[in-house]
Amino acid sequence: MxxxxxxxxIAAGEIPCFKxxxxxxxxxxxxxxPFAEGHTLVIPKExxxxxxxxxxxxxxxxxxxxxxxxxxxxxxxxxxxFNILQNNGPAxxxxxxHLHFHIVPRLGSxxxxxxxxxxxxxxxxHLKALAERLRF
Length: 136
Ligand code: AMP
Ligand code: ZN
Prior knowledge:
28% of the residues lie in helices and 18% in strands.
């Protein structure tokens, strides 16, 4: 596995993912421990660990992709809003050291609920079917 990095391995197709979107620069796929229905990660295909070691050009391009994927989630899912999260460093809760943006769809009825960073594995069959609905 290149760099010993799980997300590089996903980008290279060496590890499967529940793909939602892909282009030359990014890959978006469902988080396997979702905070909410449709929780999606957007990663650059090229490795960087976080905001500080990513070029401004890549960051600019990434946020446009994050917007595109968020719009897709909002179109397909019951989704009243969404959180965009991006953790930098273990102290901030980053567990995978490859830049990624979390897009977490939210419902109005969730409004008081905190997002839990605890890992609750999703149901794989459900994630597969959900990714098929969301893919664009
Ligand atoms: P962070 O805490 O910001 O580093 O988030 C890493 C996220 O990656 C967590 O929410 C994990 O559930 C998720 N994750 C780890 N491995 C995989 C994988 N193979 N496929 C999809 N999501 C993953
Ligand atoms: Zn990587």
